[in-house]
Every structure is written in structure tokens, then in C-alpha cells.
Amino acid sequence: MVNYLANRPGLPDETELRIFHFQAQALGIEDAGHGCFLAHGGGDLSGGQQQQLAIARALAGGPKLLILDEPTEGIQPSIIKDIGRVIRMLADRGDMAILLVEQYYDFAEALADDYLVMERGEVIASGLGQNMQADGVRRMVAI
User: Fold this and answer.
1) What's the pTM?
2) What CATH architecture is 2-100?
């Protein structure tokens, strides 16, 4: 990961690393007992830590659009809450759009400003996130 950041053109290495460490702290991938998880290989991280690291990597480029494809898949509930808090914090900053593709209804409902439900490639419902429950979205996405 450090090599990935250090070899990116555009920003000086020191600036890149400071940005990454800030993002690592915001995403909770700083390990109080061992320092930053950056010292470990990706295979040494748990699934939740790997997911958080992937989000941090995506943020390193300063995107205007962050696409998250099922960030909760295979992740333990406590880490899902952490990821949700970070997504909310990023959304509240207002400097990027976030497209969340998610099957975990409660997670999506808690974060959605707007929603769109698709079935077989067709949009079958859309609206404001605050109206998801009233609009019966849970029934639409139940498996």
C-alpha cells in the first residue's frame, strides 16, 4: 500500500502519506497496539480491515464519485457500523457523490439520501431515502 501511494504522480510522497494516514484513522484501520495496519500485508488483515483499506485506497485519489459495491458483504456487524459511520461522514462533507449498491436493507436505509430499486435491469422504484420504509422498499428487496 505504501508503495502504491509513493509511486503515484501528482502529489509529493510526504503529502500522499499524510492523506492516507488521515484516511486510515478516519476509517478505523489504525491499530492502537501495533500502529497502522499498513505495516501488515493485505492477506494479514481481516475481511473488515481489508474492506476499510479498500475504501481508504479509493479515497486516496480524491474522487468526486465514490462507488461502493456491497461494502458490508461478509463483514461482521461491528465493522459494518464503523463503515456506515465513515460513509455518513464522507457524505456529510459534501465534496463527493457516493453511489452505494447494497443488499443489506437496514444499512442502505440508514445512509440513503435517495434510493433506486432495480429488478432485472429495470428501475421499479425510486425516491427519497427518508421514505424507504413508507414506500415499502424492504418488501421489494426481500429475497
Assistant:
1) 0.68
2) 3-Layer(aba) Sandwich (3.40)
